[in-house]
Design goal:
Elements (H helix, E strand, L loop, with lengths): L14 H15 L9 H15 L22 H6 L2 E2 L2 E2 L6 H13 L5 H26 L2 H13 L1 H6 L6 H20 L3 H21 L8 H17 L1 H30 L2 H4 L4 H24 L2 H5 L2 H26 L1 H10 L1 H5 L13 H8 L6 H6 L10 H20 L12 H18 L5 H12 L1 H15 L3 H26 L6 H18 L8 H17 L5 E3 L5 H7 L17 H14 L6 E10 L4 E4 L1 H8 L2 E8 L6 E8 L22
Parallel strand pairs: 3-4
Antiparallel strand pairs: 1-2, 4-5, 4-7, 6-7
């Protein structure tokens, strides 16, 4: 098979775009600004707010892990280039996400709030599903592309991260656009178009690195593997190329297994006990585990010429890509010296190797996120991953192999890294959804592989999701304390069950073409119902309520007092408090300070502060996970002993883990003996 001959035209009804945009728009934008932001969202919001309002600059003291940093000048240039989160430099991410949120806030004129902070993610998620549809039309049939785009729009991964201010969706969209540009560049029929798409690819890679540094470089492995497979298919035919690809994937799996075994030895301290360089060993084995199979594949396919033909655009393109984000890293290093370099190393090299304070997660960590991010279309995933390696689909091999390598590369490389988070593999979800769209077309229309009997069973299983949802929510409403939210969700489940049950009944009658549309309708109704009453579910509202009420009480005093937070404040407390909220510890903290000595010095400093004494935001009680009881914190008792009393208490809803408190010092403090008894002191930081 010659891949050049398997070009799928980009035709198809234009209303497909309107349908996908409509479904995605409802899921992404409905009640987008209603829930309170989580802590990581507030980190981004605080940095973006500081860029636009310029109400404060860096707070003197030391930063994370007791590391001192210099204070650069508060110039207009630095306000935009240095992300500042509540008085501290936030250098863990490159600044594009902060710039987008700040730009939306300026354009909107309403400042940074839940809506403006999340709007960039929602907008790029909309772009993501439309680009996925357009790319799918170039790769597959219009119907398969439509199914894949609708699956992406309704997947849990998109609704979760497309409605979140964090940079994950921006990164996913830029990496997806880059993969689309590379695919179109290789298939371009003229030199000018090929050059144009390659320029777009490298610019998108640069922007993706501005969203999260170095992560997009993981695309090099699947792209190199695809170029070699393509050359092999053109030179030796589909059967030979497919066999070589299968063997390369097996060798890569073996290399990954060896690397993971070495990483787990690192986690047990085996390498440290023998005084071996843990990070270098981990990186060396990782490089060999992925490079040796690729080297074998290069020699097997004799594809060095195909890779060489990319060099005239790859060398200047890579230079442009690095020029788009490396200067920011250099400038932060210039401003903050070793402090910035330590953060960059901690976030990239130590995170990947499992050194420093990064734990080595279990090798199968990403299996559950793979399930949750692709829900509710999990039933299509096994067939979607198998189809590219099946001989029966040789006429669509080029597109299927590209999508498969896209998925495998991201999944395998992030599995190789020591530190893992579920959203790291989000950039593989668009490719997985296109593969699931392809297999869904076979399930409900073509039946080249999946026979009608299995389609019938699968459709009935999806149809049963409706009654099962009613049953589960009904049981939860009966046995749990929070009856209101489960009764509400039972109503939502009953409404959404109508199209789902209809899909199951049509499957029984073998009227398959209507089934996917009914399932999409039912899933969309579930999302809309859930988002329409987020206050029933969101425990973060208590943090927002506490911080807003604390701000009101503090401003009403109007006596020039300052507000501090006991220990490091959570970003959401600082954001909703509405002003700089330094820690009680920052001002007197010294590099390499002992935490227990620091605790005592902070209490002495607060006790000796002249009036008006600082107001203190902190915690009065916390759930003791060993005993299962809510107990008063010893830090709170220490504040009582020096004359502080809570003037506001708000109990958190997240398992009642802690009670938020606003403290104010009394004019005539009571005797120390009147302070409450407490248990052993926890760390003087936010929980």
């Amino acid at each position: 098979m010659n891949p050049e001959q398997s070009v799928c035209p980009s035709h198809g009804p234009r209303w497909h775009y309107l349908l996908v945009a409509g479904v995605a728009g409802v899921i992404l934008f409905w009640q987008l600004g209603a829930p309170a932001m989580d802590d990581h969202e507030c980190k981004l919001a605080l940095a973006a707010k500081n860029m636009t309002e310029r109400s404060g600059w860096l707070y003197e003291g030391v930063g994370e892990e007791f590391q001192a940093y210099p204070i650069p000048p508060a110039t207009a240039w630095n306000y935009w280039l240095v992300p500042v989160e509540n008085g501290r430099p936030r250098l863990v991410k490159t600044p594009l996400p902060y710039w987008t949120a700040a730009g939306v806030a300026i354009a909107n004129g309403a400042g940074i709030n839940e809506w403006t902070a999340r709007l960039p993610s929602a907008c790029v998620a909309m772009v993501l599903v439309l680009v996925t549809l357009a790319l799918g039309r170039r790769m597959l049939s219009p119907r398969a592309a439509l199914l894949g785009a609708l699956m992406l729009a309704t997947a849990v991964g998109v609704q979760k991260w497309g409605r979140n201010a964090r940079p994950e969706m921006l990164l996913c969209a830029l990496m997806t656009c880059a993969m689309a540009a590379f695919y179109l560049a290789l298939r371009a029929t003229t030199r000018a178009r090929r050059l144009g798409w390659m320029v777009a690819f490298w610019l998108l890679m640069g922007l993706a690195n501005l969203a999260k540094q170095f992560v997009p470089l993981m695309l090099v492995w699947p792209l190199a593997a695809y170029v070699l497979w393509r050359h092999d298919a053109q030179s030796h035919g589909d059967d030979a190329a497919l066999g070589s690809l299968r063997r390369m994937l097996v060798l890569t799996a073996i290399g990954l297994g060896v690397h993971l075994a070495v990483m787990n030895l690192t986690a047990t301290g085996w390498w440290q006990a023998r005084r071996l360089p843990t990070g270098k060993v981990a990186y060396g084995v990782m490089a060999l585990g992925f490079a040796l199979p690729m080297l074998w594949y290069l020699l097997r396919t004799r594809g060095w010429g195909a890779l060489g033909r990319l060099l005239p655009t790859a060398i200047p393109g890579a230079a442009v890509m690095f020029a788009m984000f490396v200067p920011w890293l250099w400038y932060m290093e210039k401003l903050f010296g070793g402090y910035a370099g330590g953060i960059f190393s901690h976030q990239v090299t130590e995170r990947a190797a499992g050194t420093g304070d990064w734990a080595v997660e279990v090798p199968w960590y990403y299996l559950l996120p793979l399930v949750t991010l692709t829900l509710p279309w999990l039933g299509m995933l096994p067939g979607a991953l198998a189809a590219p390696l099946m001989r029966r689909f040789r006429d669509r091999r080029e597109a299927l192999v590209y999508l498969l390598l896209w998925c495998v590369g991201i999944f395998a490389l992030f599995t190789a890294a020591a530190a893992k988070r579920e959203h790291y593999i989000l950039p593989m979800v668009p490719a997985a959804c296109l593969l699931m769209g392809f297999i869904s077309e076979d399930v409900f229309w073509r039946h080249e592989w999946i026979r009608p009997a299995l389609t019938r069973l699968l459709g009935v299983a999806y149809g049963l999701m409706g009654p099962v949802g009613i049953l589960v929510t009904g049981v939860a409403a009966t046995v749990t304390v929070d009856r209101a939210k489960w009764v509400y969700m039972m109503v939502v489940a009953a409404v959404a069950a109508v199209p789902m049950i209809a899909a199951g009944l049509l499957s029984l009658r073998r009227r398959f073409p209507s089934v996917p549309g009914l399932l999409v309708a039912g899933i969309t109704l579930v999302y809309v119902g859930f988002f329409s009453s987020g206050d029933l579910w969101d425990p973060r509202d208590r943090v927002r309520d506490f911080a807003v009420e604390s701000d009101r009480l503090f401003r009403a005093e109007g006596n020039g007092a300052v507000a501090l937070h006991w220990g490091d404040p959570q970003a959401k407390t600082a954001f909703y408090f509405g002003r700089l909220l330094p820690s009680t510890h920052w001002k007197i903290m010294r590099q390499d300070d002992d935490p227990h000595t620091l605790h005592r010095r902070v209490l002495d400093w607060l006790a000796d502060c002249p009036e008006p004494a600082p107001w203190i935001l902190g915690y009065e009680k916390m759930l003791n996970r060993k005993t299962g009881k809510v107990e008063r914190l010893s830090d709170a008792a220490d504040l009582w002993r020096i004359g502080y009393r809570p003037v506001l208490l708000v109990e958190g809803e997240q398992d009642k883990r802690y009670t938020f408190a606003l403290y104010r010092r009394l004019a005539s403090p009571e005797e120390p003996a009147s302070a409450p008894e407490t248990s052993t002191r926890p760390a003087a930081t936010a929980p």
